[in-house]
């Protein structure tokens, strides 16, 4: 079979066919964001002559995995990390729905090259699937006085503009784009819903800490902490002296520093509330207000949003000391400004701590959004057979992508039938705006996925 060739706005690309699915990997949507372009807004890539091979994943953004990662995170060397990948059932088709994926990873790690994010199963269901790399850590999110803010969001906008301009050549409909992501990628998805630039018709938000965004003042505190660790001034000019690989390592280290010392005087109240140092920043230009507030006011983007039943159980088990008591948990929650509330019958202290944080950070914001604007709401409730995991943060990924067996959370025999139901719902929503159950409202609540 002859490898397919498709024209993009910047040149032709050659893909490959595997098991009936055509894929194009590592296509640049913006120029390499390093050298003179470092800490600047993305710019178009240089056009190329002839046909460019799109047969392997492109460079991944510099990153250092977080401790305890349960997914394989391959690193691909190179400067041109602003690239994307396309899986399509047929480049010669027309009008197919499009899914555009933003990976998670606390905005410091992850990439589109991770095996669990292979889009072939979506393509077999008649969808054109696109996955995107974007800048991470300080490169993408640090607020710098001499640089544009929210560079990672601008990268994602550039990728969505590429999809708008190019996806019809791959069989997709640029008017039927669904943006979706998990965790930090879901937070970015919410930011785009709030900005509502007309680049996506629908959005799927998986396990977002929906209220998470930084004020400019708090983001500046994070930049100061990072600069002290790097030994430079807290500016783009200062950080330019730090190699991207070292800055990536420092960015991941700052996540740990924040987790170990949730002091609002050091990090800022919005940083501590989110427990993440790298987030979209309300800078007054790219983001005029927190995405959560924008989303609450509505808009014309169809929304499917949900959480996992035990989002923070595994994290709580890893972070709390052995022998912790219910009184200890209540005191810790009090230090965070949270009320412990009643203990679920039979819940251990670790489970109670996870219950409270999951409710406040994940479920309550989703319910508030769904009460304020039309939305379909789900909960993924299949529990891992592994002890102390439950339906943990990220466990839905293998089911969403139909790529079971690649997550360290699933156990040896995850139910394939459940993966089929989840994928069917996501594809139906992308194609029609209806995942297969009623919108959240007075007569319907949350649709629960169970085995």
From TrEMBL:
Its EC number is 3.1.1.-. Residues 3-435 form the Carboxylesterase type B domain. It holds the Pfam family COesterase. Keywords: Hydrolase. Belongs to the type-B carboxylesterase/lipase family. It comes from the Bacteria. The keyword Transferase does not apply. This is Carboxylic ester hydrolase.
């Amino acid at each position: 079979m002859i490898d397919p060739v498709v024209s993009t706005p910047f040149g032709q690309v050659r893909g490959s066919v595997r098991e009936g699915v055509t894929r194009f990997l590592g296509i640049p949507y913006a120029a390499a964001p390093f050298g003179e372009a470092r800490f600047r807004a993305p710019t178009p890539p240089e056009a190329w002559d002839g046909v460019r091979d799109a047969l392997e994943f492109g460079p991944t953004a510099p990153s250092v995995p977080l401790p305890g990662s349960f997914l394989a995170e391959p690193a691909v060397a190179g400067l041109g990390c602003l690239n994307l990948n396309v899986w399509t059932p047929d480049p010669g088709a027309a009008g197919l729905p499009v899914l555009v994926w933003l990976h998670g990873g606390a905005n410091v790690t992850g990439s589109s090259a991770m095996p669990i994010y292979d889009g072939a199963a979506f393509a077999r269901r008649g969808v054109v699937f696109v996955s995107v790399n974007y800048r991470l850590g300080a490169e993408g999110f640090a607020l710098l006085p001499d640089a544009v803010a929210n560079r990672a969001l601008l990268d994602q906008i550039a990728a969505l503009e590429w999809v708008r301009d190019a996806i019809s050549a791959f069989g997709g409909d640029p008017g039927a784009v669904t943006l979706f992501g998990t965790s930090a990628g879901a937070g970015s998805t919410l930011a785009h819903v709030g900005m509502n630039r007309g680049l996506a018709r629908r959005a799927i938000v998986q396990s977002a800490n929906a209220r998470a965004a930084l004020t400019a003042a708090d983001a500046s505190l994070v930049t100061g902490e990072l600069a002290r660790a790097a030994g430079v001034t807290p500016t783009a000019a200062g950080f330019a002296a730090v190699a991207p690989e070292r800055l990536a390592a420092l960015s991941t280290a700052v996540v740990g520093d924040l987790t170990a010392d949730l002091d609002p005087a050091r990090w800022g109240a919005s940083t501590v509330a989110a427990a993440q140092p790298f987030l979209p920043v309300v800078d007054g230009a790219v983001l005029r207000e927190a995405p959560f507030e924008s989303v609450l006011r509505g808009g014309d983007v169809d929304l499917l949003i949900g959480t996992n039943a035990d989002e923070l159980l595994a994290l709580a088990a890893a972070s709390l000391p052995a022998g912790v008591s219910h009184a200890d948990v209540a005191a810790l929650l009090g230090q965070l400004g949270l009320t412990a509330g009643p203990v679920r019958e039979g819940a251990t202290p670790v489970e109670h701590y996870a219950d409270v944080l999951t409710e406040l950070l994940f479920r309550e914001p989703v319910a508030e959004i769904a009460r304020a604007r039309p939305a379909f709401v789900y909960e993924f409730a299949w529990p891992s057979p592994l002890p102390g995991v439950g339906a943990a943060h990220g466990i839905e990924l293998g089911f969403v992508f139909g790529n079971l067996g690649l997550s360290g959370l699933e156990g040896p025999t995850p139910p394939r039938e459940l993966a089929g139901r989840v994928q069917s719902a996501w594809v139906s929503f992308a194609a029609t705006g209806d995942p297969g159950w009623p919108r959240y409202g007075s007569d319907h609540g949350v649709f629960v996925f169970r085995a």
